[in-house]
Automatic annotation (TrEMBL):
Keywords in alphabetical order: Membrane, Transmembrane, Transmembrane helix
Transmembrane annotation, as ranges: 47-71, 83-102, 114-134, 165-192, 204-225, 237-262, 282-302
Highest taxon of source: Eukaryota
InterPro entries per UniProt: Ostalpha/TMEM184C
Compartmental location: Membrane
Membrane topology: Multi-pass membrane protein
GO cellular component, one term: membrane
Protein name: DUF300-domain-containing protein
Length: 377
């Protein structure tokens, strides 16, 4: 037995005899009748694996089509790399949902991966909203404080409310990684116990941390939207937010309902369904089947048509678009340097990369941006 295993068991288990009964994980009833074919010669598990795999393939095809269109028409790198990151949530969820169905016994190891993909997407979404705001004339004062446009909108410290919003959203990334790793470790060492909410086990603590982190990130984005609603109105932000955040929200609701039905015996192992098919396979199968719908919704929410036009040529090729998308240094640097420098570099990058052709008049910002939206360095 490893030293790490001993330490973890000591943290979550009480050695006192009078409390020892509370530290016993309830035995889950995994017994059921012999499994018979569900459709033709296929068992439910085989059928679900094929169906979830087909839905994952369809979702991947739609998502890659949207990504390819944005990469080919990469006229605004600052915005479009965030759009591509958001769209990548669909294949991420679809693939892991398929793996969870296919390897249902490993579901507890895989299910927390969904939050990591969502954390990247919601952080990219906040960056996208900031750029939408900065594209409006005079909006820098509201985003960076009164008088920002007069003193140079990127000088000085970020307002407290903006810092708070940024860090409440960005914390979701490291927390999701920690929660995923902690879940895998505690499941492997036998101290997770998803069947119990006793504080002796890791399940309840991981669930609380995950819930608090998720709610904090979502509320921060919603408050930002409410504060900047006037500037964001033309961009149909609510549809964009629902198109990707609805994936995780719907999955949480479905899993919650299924757990209740399993707990009260409404859904139980049968000649078609094993315990693992019900507990982990069924929610993931439903989620996988929903992914093509969300992929189509993302196609509507993030159209490539707004980045096309006679005056808007690609600023870079598709390969550069993919490299910039997977280069997460902008998100990582925000933890250290804060929002002010990151947004400043976004605007500098827009000018360097010629995201939009500059107007003929000296000092006039590119088409689609107000005079306050671009600082000449």
């Amino acid at each position: 037995m490893s030293a790490a295993h001993l330490v973890l068991r000591k943290l979550f288990h009480d050695n006192d005899n009078k409390n020892s009964s509370k530290a016993v994980c309830p035995t889950e009833n995994t017994q059921g009748p012999d499994i018979v074919p569900f459709v033709g010669n296929l068992t439910f598990h085989s059928f679900a694996s094929i169906l979830s795999g087909a839905c994952a393939a369809a979702s991947l095809l739609i998502a890659l089509t949207i990504i390819a269109l944005h990469a080919i028409n990469y006229s605004n790198p600052i915005q479009q790399r965030q759009v591509i990151r958001i769209i990548l949530l669909v294949p991420w969820v679809a693939i892991f949902a398929f793996l969870t169905v296919w390897q249902s016994g490993a579901g507890e190891y895989l299910v927390e991966s969904l939050d990591f993909g969502c954390a990247i997407a919601i952080s990219a979404f906040l960056l996208l909203l900031c750029d939408f705001v900065l594209s409006n004339k005079g909006s820098s004062d509201e985003l960076f404080g009164e008088g920002a446009s007069r003193r140079g909108q990127f000088r000085g410290e970020s307002p407290v409310w903006l810092k708070r919003t940024w860090y409440l959203v960005l914390q979701f990334i490291p927390v999701s990684i920690i929660v995923w790793a902690a879940t895998c470790i505690t499941v492997a060492t036998g101290i997770y116990c998803g069947a119990s909410n006793s504080p002796h086990f890791a399940h309840i603590w991981i669930s609380v941390i995950k819930m608090v982190s998720t709610i904090a990130a979502v509320l921060a984005v919603l408050k930002f939207y409410k504060r900047m609603k006037a500037h964001l109105a033309p961009h149909n932000v609510f549809l964009k937010f629902f198109a990707f955040k609805g994936i995780i929200g719907l999955n949480v609701l479905q899993t919650f309902i299924i757990n209740i039905l399993v707990g009260n015996g409404t859904i139980a192992p049968s000649k078609y369904l094993t315990y693992h098919d019900i507990k982990t396979g069924l929610p993931s199968l439903i989620l996988a089947c929903e992914m093509p719908i969300f992929a189509a919704l993302l196609f509507v929410a993030f159209p490539v048509s707004v980045y096309k036009g006679e005056q808007r040529g690609p600023a870079a090729g598709p390969l550069v678009a993919l490299v910039q998308t997977f280069d997460m240094r902008d998100l990582g640097s925000a933890f250290v340097r804060g929002p002010m420098r990151l947004l400043r570099e976004q605007q500098w990058g827009m000018e360097r990369q010629s995201s939009f052709p500059l107007a003929a008049e000296e000092g006039l910002p590119p088409a689609g941006y107000g005079r306050e939206g671009l600082v000449r360095v």
